[in-house]
Amino acid sequence: MAMIIEAFASDLCNLISEIRDKRVPVLAMEHSYVDELETSILRIRNFFVAHTDYMKGNEAVAAFVRAVKDAMYHASDALSLLLLKIQEREQSTGCCTGFPNYGDIMFRHGIAVLGRQMNLLLREHATFGLAERGLPGRRSRLDVDRIYHTQSMALPVPDMVRDHQMKQESEKIVKHIVMNRRPANDVTVVAIVGAPGIGKTVLANIIFNSVIVQRQFDAKIWLNVTRNCSKLDLLQSANSTFRAVDERFSDKSRLASELHQYFQNKKLMLVMDDVWSAETWNDLLRHPLSSCAPGSCVIATTRNKNVAAMMQASHIHRVHKLKPDVSWSLLKKQVSL
């Protein structure tokens, strides 16, 4: 359960990071609401991480988990809409402006309410006799990503409709990865494409931690690419998976060469999360990782199908929200079990 919540939290923090990049004085109110929501998200994530062992197999907390995930889905929709509104203002005026109409005021209020609802959900922990661990101040985006990706474990799949869909989708992608045959030194590229916050990172994480992937691959790397990540940052992050890296060391050629040497003849699974440009793979990582063993695979999550095409993905998987009739059908099947 904790890893599911962590994956959602990571997606939401990605959205929040993008919104923060738009920070200008006239949007101070919007950012204060987003800040409040982020604090709530991190508190919930920390709570689940602190009590992972207790919650495993505990039916009493199932409703609590569903409520938390439902709130996070709503938060994802609200943040995505806020980002879209900001981008629309930028495109139409060349700069960010406030939201003057009544509907926008209610929208801002809705984000604030979501933050408060998440805080109220945390109070439910008293029902289970659990204590919330305090959040030691605001964490940076880098800290959030580091926590998320260093706590790697098999993802449980709760009996919820959305997770049922995720499990089915992950199995299809894993099957493609295992069955796909590429020429030697040609890494398989799989792209997961979808709107912000729809669950691309969650799906990639399920695949990354699947039993089949654990058995089939000699090494695994997870890289948070993002729009503002530099080439040096990515090379350092990739190298840090197998050795200590001094952040002051900035020789990109040397870092690339060490990647090439270390992963030579190793079957590698690389996840590149939130890719904005195909150059990250085509011009930066493809050559250093060309020494990998046949069967190596790159999974790229991206919002842009053109990025997937330019990366020459052999399989493009589009993540969609469940249609109401499909959700209802799956829910009825689960209730009858």
UniProtKB/TrEMBL annotation:
Gene3D superfamilies: P-loop containing nucleotide triphosphate hydrolases. Signal peptide: none annotated. InterPro entries: NB-ARC (IPR002182), P-loop_NTPase (IPR027417). Residues 170-335 form the NB-ARC domain. One of its GO terms (molecular function) is ADP binding. This is NB-ARC domain-containing protein. It comes from Oryza barthii.
